[in-house]
Model the fold of this input.
Amino acid sequence: MLMYFLIGLCLVLVGVVGLQFTYLFYVDRLNRERRKYLKALEQRCHDLTARLEHAELRVAEQDELLETIFEEEPWADVIEER
Done:
């Protein structure tokens, strides 16, 4: 009778070890997917940062261009004429 109990206990422990290995592989796969996702997010952040810097430079250039075109205030002349 004790032999059957020990065989049953061994089978239960083998089942528990199998579940633990399955969970370990599942967690490892999730970890790899998260790393890929994080790498993609970092690349997107880098691209968006570059686009933002480019846009800020364009806005600064346009502001300088507008300042050179409208050095005098034309609205002051229009208001004074009225």
About this structure: The CA atoms of residues 38 and 44 lie 10 Å apart. The chain is about 95% helix and 0% strand. The mean pLDDT is 91.
